[in-house]
Design brief:
The complex is a heterodimer of chains A (about 325) and B (about 280).
Chain A lengths: L1 H35 L4 H6 L9 H11 L5 H13 L13 H36 L4 H15 L2 H15 L12 H30 L2 H8 L4 H13 L1 H24 L5 H10 L3 H29 L1 H4 L4
Chain B lengths: L1 H30 L31 H37 L1 H15 L3 H12 L3 H10 L2 H16 L2 H8 L4 H37 L11 H8 L8 H27 L12
Classes of the chains: A mainly alpha (about 325), B mainly alpha (about 280).
């Protein structure tokens, strides 16, 4: 028992320890975005009203005031210090603290990502099992084509067609906006399409692989019915790559939601950063990278914990 | 047996489609009936006709010509970006995997950092911060995708390095450079071709998304994502404006995935004995 526990704790501590450098790296990436940007924040701030064209002296004074004349490393450390105190800066455009605005918009994106992730699992896993079960039958053929299309279609194209079909022609669902669940159905489906396709393909392949193994033959020899073999013995063993895929794709879902949010006019993180990009609002862009990076890190930690539950080899402290 | 034949027909079909798309991209200047950016004010929003096979868009530009040049833009850029990603990822993966030690530790940390970043979000932020243009797009795509390559290559190198024949060559006096060039790289080649092929498809999709958001290829550039953005307003009356570029992306990405799968089977990269269906 002792070794089992220490194995788990070693694994968890290792994963937690890795969070710190990853988080520092994310913060450095966010900071560097401001450095590589071609616009000078001092000029941006001084010409925000759209009338004044600041002189060289004015710009130099503002740069000094903002600390932009210091070496980058000092600027980074100062910025990091502020970030650690929960200060992500003030938006150039709205003059509101960036963190407040991000927190205001977070629920929209999280709800959207959550619903679509749920859709991905509820549709992708059963259909993948169905495909493996009926390998090379008509339904397998159709589902494989659908999965391939799901992974190959651009989400924005699908969105436009879905809005046209379900909202404009059939008038079943609202075209855009935020407030009710029905307004999230179309966005969530479009956001889920690509990942669902990938998950179906992976689930089919891994399950077929597991079904080739000796313990499945043993189960068959014991006379267990096919459905029980698949659900009790096949699927649990075929779920580990699926969890990895979901973890990897969450990053895609976070970013992909920017496309979806802009099409369906949802006031989430993605549409916020797109507005900020149009307005050259760098504190917001940096805050967005830092923020989504943190959400992603936390999600990946959760995925690792799920792993722990699913994979006895890690749970028992093996390799 | 029938099933295997059916699968290989699908793979062959995918390869043919992919070849056709690449050929039309390369030959666009020869086969396109019009200049993709030639505005014909008297012929806006034409339906399909002999003169314009796929009609014209709201500015009177020939849709077929724009699709052909769009293939050039999409495929050309995706190949370039996938090359950059592969080069960066492979070099760092080999360095880390082969030489090990502190270098490997630091590179592993870097890989972990970049894999901890949500790719598409960072891509949007980089392309948006740098301002539109192919260079910033290239940087955004490469920076957000090399880490996965590096991780896979490092793992492969570690595996190959442990083989006893490598130890034998080393004891016979083979230098690192010799072993890398003569044994490690050729052993990696098959997996790299597959990773590269699949990467091209992913880049096409992400660049199309960025272009659609106004952060990628810029109008009036004949790009599929830009074309879909342009068609958003008109497609109810002129659906071909929207359908055609969408189907092109579908055909390109779908065929790339299938060809990638076929290559994987051919090179038997999969560990299992199970032959993967398409």
């Amino acid at each position: 028992m002792e070794t089992i526990k220490s194995g788990i704790w070693f694994y968890i501590v290792k994963k937690l320890a890795l969070v710190i450098p990853v988080w520092l790296g994310i913060s450095a990436a966010a900071f560097l975005l401001g450095v590589i940007s071609p616009s000078d924040p001092a000029v941006l701030l001084l010409s925000m009203d759209g009338i004044s064209t600041p002189g060289a002296q004015e710009i130099a004074a503002k740069r000094h005031e903002l600390g932009l004349d210091r070496p980058y490393i000092l600027q980074y450390l100062a910025w990091l210090g502020q970030v650690l105190q929960g200060n992500l800066g003030i938006s150039y455009i709205t003059q509101q603290p960036v963190l407040d605005e991000l927190l205001l918009r977070l629920p929209v994106t999280v709800t959207l990502a959550g619903i679509s992730l749920l859709l991905v699992m509820l549709v992708g896993i059963p259909l993948g099992v169905l495909m493996a079960w009926g390998k090379n039958t008509g339904s397998d053929f159709v589902l494989r084509a659908a999965a391939l299309a799901g992974t190959s279609l651009p989400s924005f194209w699908l969105s436009i067609l879905m809005i046209w079909l379900f909202a404009e022609t059939l008038q079943l669902l609202p075209t855009s906006g935020y407030g009710s669940v029905s307004q999230l159905i179309l966005p969530a489906i479009t956001l889920a399409a690509g990942t669902t396709g990938a998950l179906m393909r992976l689930q089919r392949a891994t399950l077929l692989e597991v079904l080739e193994q000796n313990f499945i033959f043993a189960a068959k020899a014991k006379g267990l019915p096919g459905s029980r073999i698949i659900w009790r013995h096949g699927l649990p063993n075929a779920l580990i790559p699926v969890v990895t895929l979901l973890g990897n794709y969450f990053g895609g879902v976070l970013g992909g939601s920017a496309v979806i949010e802009s099409i369906y006019s949802l006031p989430g993180l993605g549409s916020y950063v797109l507005e900020a990009i149009r307005g050259r609002d760098y504190p917001v862009i940096q805050g967005y990278v830092l923020f989504t990076g943190c959400v992603f890190v936390v999600f990946n930690l959760l995925v690792d914990l799920v792993y722990l539950g699913l994979n006895p080899r890690i749970r028992l402290g093996g390799k | 047996m029938a099933a295997i034949n059916k699968a290989s027909i699908v793979y062959r079909l995918a390869a043919v489609i992919l070849l056709l798309l690449v050929a039309s991209a390369v030959l666009a200047p020869v086969i396109a009936p019009y200049d993709p950016n030639r505005v014909m004010p008297d012929e806006t929003l034409q339906p399909c006709s002999i003169r314009h096979w796929l009609g014209t868009d709201s500015l009177g530009r020939d849709v077929l010509s724009r699709l052909l040049y769009g293939a050039q833009v999409s495929i050309g850029f995706a190949v370039l970006a996938a090359l950059c990603t592969t080069l960066l990822g492979v070099s760092l993966g080999i360095i880390g995997g082969y030489f090990g030690g502190v270098t490997d530790l630091l590179l592993q940390l870097l890989v972990n950092i970049f894999q901890g970043l949500p790719g598409m979000s960072l891509m949007i932020a980089i392309a948006g911060s740098l301002g539109p243009g192919s260079a910033s797009l290239l940087l955004a795509v490469t920076l957000t995708s090399w880490a996965g390559f590096s991780r896979i290559v490092r793992g492969e190198v570690l595996k190959i390095k442990e083989e006893s024949y490598i130890e034998g060559i080393r004891s016979l006096g083979g230098s690192d450079a010799y072993i890398l060039r003569r044994y490690i790289l050729p052993n990696l080649f098959n997996s790299l071709i597959i990773l590269f092929t699949i990467r091209v498809g992913t880049v096409v999709l992400s660049v199309a998304s960025l272009s659609f958001l106004g952060l990628g290829m810029q109008p009036p550039q004949a790009d599929w994502g830009v074309m879909i953005q342009d068609a958003k307003v008109y497609f109810r009356s002129y659906p071909q404006l929207l359908i055609a570029p969408g189907l092109c992306i579908l055909a390109l990405c779908g065929s790339i995935q299938l060809v990638g799968d076929a290559l994987r089977d051919r090179f038997s990269i999969r560990q299992s004995t199970q032959k993967q269906d398409w």
